[in-house]
Amino acid sequence: MTAALSGVVISVLALVCLGIPGGAIAIAIVYSRRSRQRHIAQLAAWAAHYGFQYWPRDQSALGLSRHPPFTTGSGHEALDVLRGTFRGVHLHCFQLRYHVSSGDSTSTHDYQVVAISLPAMRPLLDIAHENALSRRFDKDITFENRAFNDRFKIASPSPRYAHDVIHPRTMEWMLADPRARTIRWRFEGAWLMTFRPGGLKPEEIFYYAEFLHQVLDQVPKHVWSDG
User: Fold this and answer.
1) CA separation for the pair 47, 83 (Å, rounded)
2) What interhelical angle do 3-17 and 22-50 show, nearest 10?
3) Residue 222, phi then psi, degrees to nearest 5
4) CA-only gyration radius of the chain, Å
5) pLDDT tens-digit series, residues 138-148
6) Which of 15, 110, 132, 217 could form a disulfide with 23 if both were Cys (CB 3.0 to 4.6 A apart)?
7) Distance between CA 201 and CA 194 in Å, rounded?
8) CA 135/CA 129 separation, integer angstroms
């Protein structure tokens, strides 16, 4: 601990001991700021090592998607934004944060987003997983494979596009691959992305990016040339 920080901590602890509530708040703020500074330094070093660019905050990243969780709640932020290339395509990662208010309480929600660029702009195609509630209340696109329909929830404004991307061989791969059975992903505009609850973890970025590349490898070439 630095001498400056030690002085602050000692002063705040003195206030707490004297029964001044603001002391506890002050010490929490100090540690929070220092923790954030360390986190920024670690991500900047990671980005430099892999040849990425890093921004602690860049709201332009929010334009990646126009659907939940990007549109859920309010006060959306794009934190710890990383941009670079991976296996010859653009790789875009960040932490999505938003707030949800209910009565007098407000909760904060974070998602890690990892996205790779597509060969061409394409409509929304969202691949999620079925559960008891979605099977009963949500309508999605159905396929000839019943086992696939029971496990996956597919949404798109273009059923034809969905069937072109998710052909029988891809369905077999999705049913067999443990990552596909647990990871949610989405085609939208210029990007193929995945997102999971929680903060950005740089050690996970290439794992998810590699999975997205394998998803992309399943897509027939004619999908990118169709109008």
Assistant:
1) 9
2) 150
3) -65, -20
4) 22
5) 789 999 999 99
6) 15
7) 14
8) 10
